[in-house]
Amino acid sequence: GVPGITPNISNSGESSKTDWSGRVGLQFDFNDDLHSYATLSRGYKGQAYSVSFNMPQASTQVLDPETSTAFEVGLKGNLFDRLLSFSLAAYKTRFNGFQANFPAVFLGAISTRLTNAGSVDSQGIELDATLRPTPALRITGAMAVTDAKIDQFICPSGTTCPNYDGQVLPFAPRFKGNLDAAYTVDLGGDYELEFASDYTYKSATQYQITQNPDTIQPAYGIWNASVALAKRKAWEIRGVVKNITNQNYSSFLANGNVSGVVRFVPRDVARYFGVMAKAEF
User: Fold this and answer.
1) What per-residue confidence (pLDDT) applies to 261?
2) pLDDT for 97-130, tens place per residue?
3) How far is the C-alpha of 188 from the C-alpha of 115, rounded, in Å?
4) 68: how many CB neighbours lie within 10 A of its CB?
5) N or C, which terminus of the chain has less Cβ within 10 Å?
6) Running DSSP on this structure, what letter comes out for residue 209?
7) 121, 91 in Cβ contact below 8 A?
8) CA-CA distance, 178 to 140, in Å (whole number)?
9) CA 73, CA 92: separation in Å to the nearest integer?
10) First to last CA, the chain
11) pLDDT score at 124
12) Are the C-beta atoms of residues 133 and 124 closer than 8 Å to each other?
């Protein structure tokens, strides 16, 4: 072998486990337009292996299953002669044996290991609503308020790490919301003109379980708009402008292989214009 270089690790094995998942629920209908429900669920994610070209021997063992217990209550319905439709839900979920990616340095390079990170809790409220003040105008909104935290973190074998108990769970912004509206003008003869716009907002988001302050995407909002000429059940031509305010943001942040941070950017990271067309046959 080459001095200073550890040979590739070769490992084989198999595992099997039988478990279960399911859900039970109750529903109560106040009337034809208003319904409530409550559910209790158990989820199951099977055993797994962490696979990486440079992983240490300590990370080749089979991971324990991940299980979850979730409770949800909700209310759905239509109000004011179906002028307003809505869905409101509150939930609480606990994950045990949480399977998560954990970056660790091995032979001078970062190796992302899949590990049983411990137990985490997620709870929150979600709301979706659609308002139709006139036949030509539709306004739709949605929001989610989430409190997702690491309850008890287990440091992967062969590594050392700070205490992450109580820290925020990756990919779990505190608030997400969107609002979109569309107004349709009837031009006669099955032709119509539609004006539409939407706005999406996401609060600050941590992307790494290691709580690196450099892998936090600050809060941002994206505003889009479009105008379309269409013939019903035939064709549509739509002009669009995406990211009107030219908001710069990242869809994912990760620790760099040598140093710094790797930044992923989506297509909508800068303002752009376009034309879309579709036809029905």
Assistant:
1) 87
2) 998 888 766 655 666 778 888 999 999 999 999 9
3) 61
4) 18
5) C
6) T
7) no
8) 8
9) 9
10) 65
11) 97
12) no
Which residues in the chain show pLDDT less than 70? 1-13, 52-60, 104-111, 257-259
CA 102 to CA 173: how far, in whole Å? 19
DSSP-based three-state secondary structure for 192: strand
For residue 53, the model assigns a pLDDT of 56
> Which own/partner contact pairs does 181-186 have at CB distance under 8 Å and 24+ positions apart?
181/137, 181/138, 181/139, 181/140, 182/137, 182/138, 183/136, 183/137, 184/136, 184/137, 185/136, 186/136
State whether the Cα torsion 210-262-217-48 is positive or negative.
Answer: negative
Task: Give the closest residue to 219 by CA, choosing from 167, 266, 174.
Answer: 174
Q: What is the DSSP letter of 48?
A: B
158: left (phi over 0), alpha (psi -120 to 50) or beta: left
257 DSSP 8-state letter: S
Angle (CA) 227-233-238 rounded to 5° is 20
- Tracing tokens 């991940």 back to the chain, one arrives at 66
C-alpha 113/C-alpha 55 separation (Å) is 7
* Residues forming beta bridges with residue 241, ordered by sequence position: 225, 273
Pairwise CA distance, residues 214 & 217, whole Å: 8
pLDDT, tens digit, 9 for 90 and up, residues 29-72: 999 999 999 999 999 998 887 776 555 555 567 888 999 999 99
Residues 6+ apart with CB under 8 A from 17: 46, 47, 65
- What's the angle, vertex CA 112, arms to CA 53 and CA 146, rounded to 5? 150
Task: Transcribe 112-142 into DSSP letters.
Answer: EEEEE-EEEEEEEEEEEEEEEEETTEEEEEE
